[in-house]
Amino acid sequence: MVIVVPVIFNLKDQPLTWANDVNTELARYAPDYIEKYGKVGSQMWWSAYSNNEIPKTSITGIITFIGLRKDDCEELWDIVEISSPDRQVEYERIAYWLNEAVTLNAEVRMEQFSIYIPHKYGPMTSTFDCAVEVNDRGIDQRI
Q1: DSSP SS3 for 57
Q2: Spatial contact of 115 and 11, defined as CB atoms under 8 Å apart
């Protein structure tokens, strides 16, 4: 039996507007990045990404909480909490996190990349989810 794990988000399928701000910052503060890899989201950049020239991070975890939770300032947020052996992350429950596959105890696999841009007063980091898969049958159901 083969279990199909739904991809609930793939950045490559999104309109390129997601990269506008980071490309503006790169052009201003780190033009050598664009020269080496191309503009973020361009065909040249995706090729570098596919060839592992752009560092990526993979996170695999279990959804341990879905719902409303107060933050440190007592503001109420609708969140998805994902726990893995080395970290716990929370996402605001919007966009693809509202997918019906996002259920308690589901396994989540995410691929992310970060771009560091040097600024006069310190670096700016932009982190993007590139792909998100959810196995709503849980980690024990993988093949």
Answers
A1: strand
A2: no
Q: What is the b/e burial string over 40-49, where b = at least 16 CB atoms within 10 angstroms of the residue's CB?
A: bbeeebbebb
Assigned token pair, 88: 């716990």
Q: Annotate 78-113 with b (16+ C-beta within 10 A) or e (fewer).
A: ebbbbeeeeeeeebebeebbeeebbeeebbbbbbbb
Q: Which long-range contacts (CB under 8 A, 24 or more apart) does 123-126 make?
A: 124/25, 126/21, 126/22, 126/25
Q: Give the residue from 142, 138, 127, 139 showing the smallest Cα distance to 56.
A: 127
Per DSSP (E only), the strands in the chain are 7-10, 57-70, 76-84, 87-92, 107-117, 124-135
pLDDT digits (tens, 9 = 90+) for 50-85: 999 999 999 999 999 999 999 999 999 999 999 999
Distances (CA, A) of 142 to 15, 63, 107, 130, 138: 32, 15, 9, 22, 8
First CA to last CA distance, the chain: 8
